[in-house]
Amino acid sequence: MQGAILKSFTYENQGGNGAGVILLDKEMTEQEKQDIAAEIGLSETAFILQKDEKNFDVSFFTPVCEVDLCGHATIAAFYYLGLIGVIKGKNETKKVCQKTNAGELGIEVVFGENVEYVLMQQQSPTFFGDLKGKDVQKIAYSLNAEEGNIGLDGVEIYPAIVSTGLKDIMVPVKSRSILNGLNINLDEIREVSVEKDVVGYHVYTVDNGIIYARNFAPKVGIDEECATGTSNGALCGLLYTKRLISENAEIIQGESMNEKSLINVKIVEKNSVLDVYVGGRATIVEAIII
């Protein structure tokens, strides 16, 4: 049995979300996994049991309970498997599968000379419509922003509710300086989130072809997060349908927190259905000795 602590969605070896990864050599009881996760103390720890070359059983534990799925721990887990040679490749993409309590999910491990990044499949995006008029006024007020700063220059686009598993309001703003300078009102964001039945806001802009984003979810206890997989998948689904991005996109999140994270998104369109893959790099912080 071996393992490590990694940070997922890192950018230039900085930023990212921490997760524990344990590669099992035999089955382990839930209580044993729970005890290890509690000792590691990160938001999630992934436990991996390899079934064959392409199939892996993966379970996720917080310090207090098991959860069905965790995106950043998935990225950490399969990046780790690529780093230590359990999944091997060179200048190719290896497709494998993880079996979780949330079902079987496709994983792509992208190799150059070594593992480059990992992508995990999400649900196809569901679009719940644009928000206009008084809704835009409320959103601008909650961000302490001028209403005229909501949108993208040269493009007709409005805040919109989108989901690839979790509903968020995608809020465009007109520049990176506006994005990083937002002086948000968490109570107002929480109120709008409750009213619209969403997790929170994913505020974004486009600067020289790169998407920059900030994520606020006070309704679920997260004031701001430096890397958000599901929200960026949903955002890219929206921007792809607007023909503002191609099938591959990069999002930098956490810049204003001094925790820059890089999220990679790939869109595959088949018969007018979008398959969304979200992922990124990971960095080993330290080995785990058990």
Gyration radius, to the nearest Å?
Answer: 19 Å
pLDDT averaged over residues: 93
Q: Give the count of helical stretches.
A: 6
Largest sheet: 18 strands, mixed
What does this structure look like?
- The chain starts with a strand and ends with a strand.
- The radius of gyration is 19 Å and the shape is globular.
- The protein has an 18-stranded mixed sheet that branches.
- The chain is 21% helix and 41% strand.
- The chain has helices spanning 30-40, 71-83, 134-142, 176-180, 186-196, 229-241, and strands at 2-8, 17-23, 45-50, 55-61, 66-67, 93-100, 103-111, 115-122, 126-130, 160-163, 167-172, 200-207, 210-217, 222-225, 248-253, 261-270, 273-280, 282-288.
- Strand 1 (2-8) and strand 2 form a beta hairpin.
- The mean pLDDT is 93.
Summarize the structure.
This protein is α+β, with helices and mostly antiparallel strands and 290 residues long.
